[in-house]
Amino acid sequence: MTDREETFGKVKSLIEPFNKKGVELTEATTFAGDLEWDSLIVMDFVASVEDEFDILITMNQQAEIENVGQLVDAVEALRNDG
Known about the structure:
It contains four helices and no strands. The protein is mainly α. The longest helix has 15 residues, at 39-53.
Protein backbone atom coordinates (compact mmCIF):
# COMPACT_ATOMS: atom_id res chain seq x y z
CA MET A 1 0.00 0.00 0.00
CA THR A 2 1.36 3.42 -0.91
CA ASP A 3 1.39 6.37 1.45
CA ARG A 4 -1.27 7.99 -0.71
CA GLU A 5 -3.54 4.93 -0.45
CA GLU A 6 -3.08 4.97 3.30
CA THR A 7 -3.91 8.69 3.42
CA PHE A 8 -7.01 8.08 1.28
CA GLY A 9 -8.14 5.37 3.70
CA LYS A 10 -7.70 7.65 6.71
CA VAL A 11 -9.50 10.51 4.96
CA LYS A 12 -12.38 8.15 4.10
CA SER A 13 -12.68 7.08 7.73
CA LEU A 14 -12.70 10.74 8.82
CA ILE A 15 -15.48 11.50 6.32
CA GLU A 16 -17.73 8.66 7.52
CA PRO A 17 -19.17 10.43 10.61
CA PHE A 18 -20.11 13.38 8.38
CA ASN A 19 -21.46 11.22 5.52
CA LYS A 20 -25.11 11.38 6.56
CA LYS A 21 -26.37 10.35 3.13
CA GLY A 22 -24.16 7.26 2.88
CA VAL A 23 -22.54 8.48 -0.34
CA GLU A 24 -20.00 6.05 -1.80
CA LEU A 25 -16.64 7.73 -1.39
CA THR A 26 -14.24 7.91 -4.31
CA GLU A 27 -11.45 10.29 -5.31
CA ALA A 28 -14.05 12.24 -7.32
CA THR A 29 -16.61 12.63 -4.51
CA THR A 30 -17.23 16.35 -4.00
CA PHE A 31 -17.85 17.87 -0.60
CA ALA A 32 -20.38 20.50 -1.65
CA GLY A 33 -22.13 18.58 -4.43
CA ASP A 34 -22.10 14.89 -3.53
CA LEU A 35 -21.94 15.11 0.26
CA GLU A 36 -23.96 18.35 0.43
CA TRP A 37 -21.82 19.75 3.24
CA ASP A 38 -22.30 23.29 4.45
CA SER A 39 -19.48 25.49 5.73
CA LEU A 40 -19.91 24.38 9.36
CA ILE A 41 -19.51 20.70 8.49
CA VAL A 42 -16.49 21.57 6.35
CA MET A 43 -14.90 23.44 9.28
CA ASP A 44 -15.47 20.51 11.65
CA PHE A 45 -14.15 18.05 9.08
CA VAL A 46 -11.06 20.12 8.27
CA ALA A 47 -10.29 20.33 12.00
CA SER A 48 -10.47 16.53 12.26
CA VAL A 49 -8.16 16.13 9.23
CA GLU A 50 -5.69 18.62 10.68
CA ASP A 51 -5.67 16.78 14.01
CA GLU A 52 -5.30 13.35 12.42
CA PHE A 53 -2.37 14.31 10.20
CA ASP A 54 -0.87 17.08 12.38
CA ILE A 55 -1.04 19.62 9.54
CA LEU A 56 -2.58 23.05 8.96
CA ILE A 57 -4.81 23.61 5.94
CA THR A 58 -5.09 27.32 5.08
CA MET A 59 -8.31 28.98 3.99
CA ASN A 60 -6.81 29.44 0.50
CA GLN A 61 -6.05 25.72 0.28
CA GLN A 62 -9.54 24.85 1.52
CA ALA A 63 -11.06 27.02 -1.20
CA GLU A 64 -9.24 25.03 -3.87
CA ILE A 65 -10.19 21.59 -2.53
CA GLU A 66 -13.44 20.41 -4.04
CA ASN A 67 -13.19 16.63 -3.92
CA VAL A 68 -11.71 13.79 -1.89
CA GLY A 69 -8.79 13.22 -4.27
CA GLN A 70 -7.73 16.86 -4.07
CA LEU A 71 -7.84 16.68 -0.28
CA VAL A 72 -5.68 13.54 -0.25
CA ASP A 73 -3.17 15.29 -2.54
CA ALA A 74 -3.13 18.35 -0.27
CA VAL A 75 -2.63 16.24 2.87
CA GLU A 76 0.23 14.36 1.20
CA ALA A 77 1.89 17.63 0.11
CA LEU A 78 1.53 19.19 3.57
CA ARG A 79 2.85 16.11 5.32
CA ASN A 80 5.87 15.94 3.05
CA ASP A 81 6.64 19.65 3.48
CA GLY A 82 6.53 19.41 7.25
